[in-house]
Amino acid sequence: NYKKKMIGKFILLLSLLLISTTGHVCYKHEGVDWETGACASGSRQSPINIVTANVREAQDVELYISGTDITTGSIHYHDHELKVTYAGATAKYTSDDEESEWALAQFHYHAPAEHRIDGKTHDLEMHSVFVSKTDPGQLLVVGVIYELEQGYEDDEFIASLALENLVSNPTTGHIENVPM
């Protein structure tokens, strides 16, 4: 078996970043030294380095996610992206002055992780992308960072994705009964 260490409460901060969908995202410049637009002056874009000494736990904020087991869905691999799409999961975000509902659109992986914690790059990061039920132009992204050890291939969730069937690029497959 393997141990996956999900980096704790401060990951919730990633999930609270609401972003608008305005078009195709392109990383053609790559790296963290982008020189134009929000990349030069913004403070809420990817990738980020989470400095744990500066993290504050959000007060009176809750995120409930339900319907996470996949009964049927699709898995798509293209270039360096692995994306799973299925219907069913929902999220409910509440704070002092707001309550909103979200539907899962897809989840995908970055290997190595897109974001860093205290300057350290981790093995894998999963992003669950939710779409607002009242404003489809708004997204809620929940990030989970993994540290993998030898034997991760024996993990029930990873095994259920049947990654060995993704033999060509691009390729799409069908998945069933995946426990989250």
Automatic annotation (TrEMBL):
Reactions performed catalytically: hydrogencarbonate + H(+) = CO2 + H2O
Enzyme Commission code(s) on record: 4.2.1.1
Family: Belongs to the alpha-carbonic anhydrase family.
EC class: lyase
Pfam family, one: Carb_anhydrase
GO molecular function: carbonate dehydratase activity; zinc ion binding
Organism: Euplotes crassus
Domain Alpha-carbonic anhydrase: 23-180
Protein known as: carbonic anhydrase
Keywords, comma-separated and alphabetical: Lyase, Metal-binding, Signal, Zinc
Database matches in InterPro entries: CA_dom, CA_dom_sf, Carbonic_anhydrase_a-class
